[in-house]
Design goal:
The complex is a heterodimer of chains A (about 280) and B (about 290). Chain A has 2 domains: about 25 residues; about 210 residues, MetI-like (MetI-like fold), CATH 1.10.3720.10. Chain A contains 13 helices and no strands. Chain A is flat, with a radius of gyration of 24 Å. With about 290 residues, chain B is mainly alpha-helical. Chain B has a domain of about 170 residues: MetI-like fold (Orthogonal Bundle), CATH 1.10.3720.10. The chains are: A mainly alpha (about 280), B mainly alpha (about 290).
């Protein structure tokens, strides 16, 4: 081996070590928590800490119902909020993105500016005015305010991302379909939407992650019946009698796995969307 | 006045969007302004009290402390996010097989909810039995009290926040690094530049605009951080980790002082919009390019 080969070999090792460090930082907390959720309850706090238990068991999962009896119902509430919010957001944002991408009318600049400004608004500012309103409408402790407020805080970014994906499709394709007798919107739905399906999937996941993980609105607008899973996990963690960590890790794992899988599945389009949203505007 | 056909179509298709934004964000924002000028508390009619809430909040030492704490928190988190994100982007620039898989893994923390991130880090950072202190002790270094100590509990919040959000910085800076023309490196190679000089004289200057934009974005979105600090420490021990969002929450929903809460809300909103003005103008130009 000459000195150049040696250097290249050394560089190769350093390079892979660096990647290993990066992956360890990103993934270790997740992997460690998921593995620990299958430890026997007595081994959760074993010292020295171990990466996995002596056997893999579901007993932490079986214990969830005992200490957080509403957890699975609360997961159901989270599913309702997420599905309802995603559906409303995507319908609303697709219609709006079509307008901003395909229609040229001077006054559109005003709603355009509105969504750009509102996208920056912190959700915490609306909880004070919305709380008395939801109370007066009898909507506290229902999933309705979570779906509607969640949608309102998702549509701006969803519209901007979808517009960017639509802009990439040449309008000539739609015009060809219009010659065949479609109107402009039909042409958009039949030609352009299928072409941006991967982009729509990424926006769906992006919005779903936000709604599924949402904590603030759920904390303020629900108490018992409509409570969502994140709030229940937080309550279990701050149990005054001490948190039951095996159960907590199991609840967290259930909450985490679906979104992590979804995000990893559409990561290419998500990366594209994040880059568009930030860099290209 | 007759609207043109495209205008009618646009108006119809935009109605759901405008209704959602109007009912749940625009109108509440103005209501918030009104509430901040009253002594509203649930179950009692509000009276107009002018700017008293602002006077009360701005002269409350707890508010000033929360504000300063929030500024320090935001600066540390954002600098770490950009530092960690940039370092990881540089690592990913080295050619690896299966790069798409590594990106998928790096994006995973973005999917994790704040409360679940708190659970996993609290488990790892337990001062006595946690795996992190075990690793530190195995290296012969002094262990860290983490959540049990006022100074280090802020560090825990910072770690969790950085871990959850660094992927955004990595991805944006990676894209910026990838867009640097190869000819520059070739020219630098001819001049005998080493990788360090490439970093200082080519990479950093050329992606400086992207770094600036990422910094601004992350400052704005870190300023409002609530879920992680609230579930991790609730602002404690004492008020050691009480930042603005927690101060607001406590004023409004613990002490039922909606007026004071609203005043803090408006201060936060004003700061956010002010900080965002550059990004807003930039995005607007990107959306309606014919204006340039």
């Amino acid at each position: 081996m000459n000195i150049h080969q040696l250097r290249r070999f050394g560089f190769g090792i350093v390079k892979w070590l660096l990647l290993a460090a990066v992956l360890l930082w990103a993934a270790f907390p997740i992997v460690f928590m998921v593995m620990s959720s299958f430890k026997p309850p007595g081994e959760i706090w074993a010292y020295p800490p171990r990466l996995w238990g002596s056997t893999a068991t579901l007993s932490n999962y079986e214990e969830i119902g005992r200490y957080s009896p509403t957890y699975f119902r609360d997961l159901g509430n989270s599913v309702q909020v997420t599905l309802g919010g995603v559906l409303l957001t995507i319908l609303t944002a697709t219609a709006a993105a079509f307008v901003f991408s395909r229609i040229r009318t001077g006054w559109l600049k005003l709603p355009g500016l509105l969504i750009i400004v509102i996208r920056m608004f912190p959700p915490i500012v609306v909880i004070i005015p919305l709380f008395p309103l939801m109370s007066a409408l009898g909507l506290l402790d229902t999933v309705t305010p979570l779906i509607l407020a969640g949608t309102a805080f998702s549509v701006s970014i969803a519209t901007m991302l979808l517009k960017a994906f639509i802009d990439d499709i040449p309008v000539e394709l739609e015009q060809a379909a219009m010659i065949d007798g479609c109107n402009q919107f039909q042409a958009f739905v039949r030609i352009t939407l299928p072409l941006i399906a991967p982009g729509i999937a990424a926006v769906v996941v992006f919005v779903a992650v936000g709604l599924w993980n949402e904590y603030l609105f759920a904390l303020i607008f629900t108490s018992t019946e409509a409570r969502t899973a994140p709030v229940t996990i937080a309550i279990a963690m701050s149990n005054p009698d001490g948190a039951r960590w095996g159960q907590l890790l199991a609840m967290s794992t259930i909450h985490l796995v679906p979104v992590v899988v979804l995000v990893m599945a559409v990561h290419k389009q998500l990366v594209q969307g994040m880059t568009t949203g930030a860099v290209k505007g | 006045m007759r609207l043109s056909r495209p205008s009618v179509i646009a108006l119809v298709l935009l109605t759901p969007l405008l209704a959602a934004l109007g009912f749940f964000i625009v109108v509440p924002a103005f209501q918030l302004l009104w509430i901040s000028l009253t002594n509203l508390t649930p179950g009692r009619p509000a009276e107009f009290i002018g700017l008293d809430n602002y006077g009360y909040v701005l002269s409350d030492p707890a508010f000033i402390a929360a504000l300063l704490r929030n500024i320090a928190f935001v600066l540390v988190v954002v600098v770490l996010e950009v530092g960690v994100g940039f370092a990881i982007a540089l690592v990913l620039q080295l050619r690896f097989p299966l790069r798409s898989l590594w990106f998928a893994i790096i994006l995973a923390p973005f999917a994790v909810s704040p409360i679940v991130a708190v659970v996993m880090w609290k488990y790892m950072l337990d001062p006595t039995f946690g795996i992190v202190n075990y690793a530190i002790a195995s290296l012969g270094l002094p262990t860290v009290p983490w959540m049990t100590d006022a100074a280090t509990s802020m560090a825990v919040i910072i770690i969790v926040a950085v871990w959850k959000e660094f992927a955004f910085t990595t991805i944006v800076l990676f894209a910026a690094l990838t867009s640097i023309p190869k000819e520059l490196y070739e020219a630098a190679h001819v001049d005998g530049a080493n990788p360090w000089q490439n970093l200082i004289h080519i990479k950093i200057p050329l992606i400086a605009p992207a770094i600036a934009i990422v910094l601004l974005f992350r400052i704005i979105f870190t300023l409002r951080e609530f879920g992680i600090p609230w579930t991790l420490t609730g602002g404690g021990p004492g008020t050691a980790t009480e930042i603005l969002s927690i101060y607001l929450y406590k004023q409004a929903f613990r002490y039922s002082d909606f007026g004071a809460g609203a005043a803090i809300g408006w201060i936060m909103l004003a700061v956010t919009v002010l900080l965002s003005s550059f990004l807003i103008r930039r995005t607007y130009r990107g959306m309606f390019p014919e204006d340039r």
